[in-house]
Amino acid sequence: EEDPIKFIKATEVEQGLLSSISEVNTTSERLADDRKSLPIYQYKEKLLEVVKDNQVLIIVGETGSGKTTQIPQYLLEARYTRRGKIACTQPRRVAAMSIAARVARQMGVKLGHEVGYSIRFEDRTSDRTVLKYMTDGMLLRELQSEPDLASYSVVMVDEAHERSVSTDILFGLVKDIAMARPDLKLLISSATSDTEKFSEYFDSANIFTIPGRRYHVDIHYTETQVADYLAAAVDTALQIHVKLQPGDGDILVFLPGQDDIENAEEMLRLKTRGLGTKIPELIICPIYANLPTELQAKIFIPTPQGARKVVLATNIAETSLTINGIKYIIDPGYCKTKTYQPRTGMETLKVTPVSKASATQRAGRSGRTGPGECYRLYTRDIYNSMDENVEPEIKRTNLANVVLTLKSLGIEDIKNFDFMDPPPGETLTKALELLIALGALDEPGKLTKVGRRMAEFPLDPMLSKMIVASDEYKCSSELISIAAILSLGNSVFYRPKDKRKDAATARERFYMGNVGDHIALLNVYNSWKETDFSTQWCYENYIQVRSMKQARKVREQLEGLLKMAEIEVTSNANDLDIRMAIVSGCFRHTARLQKGGSYQTVESCRTVYIHPSSVLAQAPPRWVVYHELVETSREYMRQVTELKPEWLEKVAPHYYKLEDTEDCSSKKMPRAVGRACLN
Ligand code: ADP
Ligand code: MG
Predict the structure, then answer these.
(1) Fewest CB atoms within 10 Å of the CB: 109, 337, 525, 618?
(2) Given this model, what pLDDT does residue 288 score?
């Protein structure tokens, strides 16, 4: 544990406000000192004054200055919570969790009591929660049950510069709410840049700037282009590490994703082991979105004397989380970026070069407490060719879910919604088309009963539709298990490199009937449940125990939501019924076998393949539906299930006519309808 058990007196303000603290935990004096040493502390009174005088305020301050952890506490101390809770939104789940934990410790309260967090499928708040850290997506969902945010006195939309889709949508909604509720304070906080744009959008709101403290950071470029950024990052980290000086700082390496981080970790372990005791101890700390909560805190543990820490992080360490003690930055210059092609409906996550703004932020993660060094694993020319900023997410993502949320909030005219940056028209059209096809919207674009029920689930609309449809086929219990696993986004099958064969054999035991991956996933869940959720069973069957535990949690949440959506909990082992429910949700993702083993999608006539990891890869059926398309060496369908074309007409008669289904060019598409409701 980071903090020794030690009791201190709560400050007077805290005592006054937090009268019912039952478990004052380990807040140390050091934490109180930390609070005062943050750049924002000097501006506390001034800030409170400005907040008092401005209903809407843009706050700009360098990363690490204390915006996220301190401002909500200042407002609490200034008693804003008398009228309601303080919400602070984050685009990233890990940031919401980690920051809430930090603030709870600073206030000496138990996480989930006065300070809590709420992220999709996990709510750690209680009746007494007054500071609520949450993902921007969760606040959007809360608007469905509380359109005026009546239980909040302050909304702080944090990390506004990230411009996540949910943040962008929140902007438009909270702007309206603030107009209707003069008692609501609205703070928009951002690390840098674009503040004029924020101010302009919020009707010339005032900007409050927290001056940062900064030491010089030496930036190094490579002389020539690096062939393998991962190997180069690992080597650079080791080069720095072997020259450890007393009092030297830690290393932060930015990598695009979990896979690279895991590989780098392995490479570093091998290489340091090879060097034995010739080098000082190197403590390797990964941090990424799917890292289990228990391990996330490790990055903040201060490095012992004589050792060095190397943090391997995704973009999460760029502005959302600040790790103290970093002196060296290694920046390969890549991140994962989502792109969306409305024409094909394909959303991909690709490793792409970062923007100049990102590179600057990354370098700035050193030099906070002393001079820093930044090693860019690219040339100066490459830097000069980088884009200034990344495009906001709303320009490059599928909006079906967002449109359904807006419709369920009663926003009819989506095209004229007050977007800070409007999404591409084609993306909106596609989203409306999909929702009409799923029956969530009627043809003029009004939310239907089905749509209202779908909107209860924080899932992709196709998954929500499967669950709603499962009511009819009396298999809601099965469908929430399947949806829970699919919503994880990562495989539940464990495939260690050295045991590929054993793992494949184990996997085949779940293939019963070979009708598809959805049913196989259901078999995994049900078999695990029969063992009373045994961890040992997962090990024996090459199943990822962590993913399954997460799926179980998600499933529990979905079960609770069934009631809200007026769906009975029913169980039915007939796989035909289950497949009908599945097809009711993803009938637009139908593909037909071609000569040579490829498939052609019905919707856009693309050539695609069954993913090699699929149950159906060895025996491709004539017709399939798929959960998603992923692009690697080819376009692959992932999570594939066999269907009979007759089913299409049964579940989506408005969309398919039987005589059409054999010919992909003459399918019935409600395209014109989708466009019509935009006007
Ligand atoms: P900002 O939002 O302005 O970027 P924060 O409020 O997130 O700043 O961070 C302020 C300080 O709190 C930083 O120095 C950071 O290192 C520290 N901090 C935040 N979370 C933790 C944690 N879990 N453990 C230790 N220090 C933390
Ligand atoms: Mg912050």
Answers:
(1) 618
(2) 94
Rounded mean pLDDT, 447-473: 97
Mean pLDDT of 534-556: 95
Helices (H), 38-147: 44-53, 67-77, 93-107, 136-145
The type of residue at 458 is: P
CA 8 – CA 284 distance, rounded (Å): 33
The ipTM assigned to this model is 0.98
**Residue 215 banded pLDDT, cuts 50, 70, 90:** confident
Distance CA 642, CA 646 (A): 12
Atom of ligand 1 nearest to the CA of 70: 6
Q: Please, where are the H alpha helices in 515-631?
A: 517-530, 535-540, 545-564, 575-586
* SS3 sequence of 450-496: HHHHHCCCCCCHHHHHHHHHHCCCCCHHHHHHHHHHHHHCCCCECCC
Nearest CA to ligand 1 atom 25: 300
Q: Which pLDDT does position 15 carry in this prediction?
A: 28
Q: How many CA atoms lie within 13 A of 364 on its CB side?
A: 20
Residue 392 β-bridge partners: none
Tokens of residue 368, six digits: 């906070």
Output the six-digit token pair for 406.
Answer: 């807006």
- Alpha-carbon distance 233 to 210, whole Å? 33
Q: Is residue 203 within 8 Å of 55, Cβ to Cβ?
A: no
Identify the nearest ligand to the CA of 38 by its number: 1
**Ligand 2 centroid vs 33 CA: distance in angstroms?**
19
Query: What's the rounded Cα separation, in Å, for the pair 239 and 349?
Result: 31
The Cα 185–Cα 80 span in angstroms is 9
Distances (CA, A) of 277 to 110, 242, 543: 41, 11, 37
**What pLDDT does 193 receive?**
66
pLDDT reading at 7 higher than 60: no
11 burial (CB, 10 Å; 0-12 / 13-18 / 19+) is: middle
Span between the terminal Cα atoms of the chain, in Å = 59
Judge contact between 265 and 286, C-beta under 8 A. yes
User: What is the average pLDDT across 420-443?
Assistant: 95
Separation between Cα atoms, residue 159 and residue 199, nearest integer Å: 15
Q: Are 328 and 372 in contact (CB under 8 A)?
A: yes
DSSP 206-241: EEEEE------EEEE--SS--S-HHHHHHHHHHHHH
Distance 260 CA to ligand 1 centre (A): 25
Rounded CA-CA distance 175/202 in Å is: 7
DSSP strands (E only) in 97-190: 115-119, 122-124, 131-135, 152-157, 185-190
CA nearest to 181, candidates 170, 173, 193: 173
Tokens read off for 105: 């410790």
56-61/206-210 β-pairing: parallel
Separation in Å, CA 294 to CA 98, 297, 546, 556: 11, 7, 12, 21
Quick one: which H or E segment has residue 461?
helix 461-470
Main-chain dihedrals φ then ψ at residue 135, nearest 5 degrees? -75, 155
